[in-house]
Description:
By secondary structure, this protein is mostly helical. It has helices at 14-19, 25-40, 44-48, 54-66, 70-77, 81-88, 97-104, 119-130, 136-143, 160-175, and strands spanning 50-52, 94-96, 117-118, 157-158. 53% of the residues lie in helices and 5% in strands. The termini are far apart.
Amino acid sequence: xxxxxxxxxxxxxxxxxxxxxxxxxxxxxxxxxxxxxxxxxxxxxxxxxxxxxxxxxxxxxxxxxxxxxxxxxxxxxxxxxxxxxxxxxxxxxxxxxxxxxxxxxxxxxxxxxxxxxxxxxxxxxxxxxxxxxxxxxxxxxxxxxxxxxxxxxxxxxxxxxxxxxxxxxxxxxxxxxxxxxxxxxxxx
Length: 188
């Protein structure tokens, strides 16, 4: 008589589904419910909420047109640069709701810290300060930037450091009452 040990399957477990390839309804239901949490550290609900990427694609296109680059958008949204490029290029048609929310939360009118800043943000501040009768030379000297800093930047953007210097002057003028809060509505 042969005394071989036979394994009793423990149905309804991830182990049974993965290791022993059991596809009974109990194992399948357990896999469908818990696999994402065990393998990806996510709740099953997070993996099933897919939305169209159209709104995020349009928002990314607007930010790219405004002068932001894919790296800045990705850093601000907390996603990868490849994801931004896939959405912008139309390769990704659906995305998780939380990714779409993160992209749409990035404000194209505010600079992203430690990245190049689109010129339109800097020009809005300069225009508002000049409307009070200040000259560009005085603004540049007070801010401590070169009078050519807009022309010495990469493409249509300026450095974060120069933006911060100029923003300090702008904020002091606004706090002193020379500029109205929010100005003429053109400055963030």
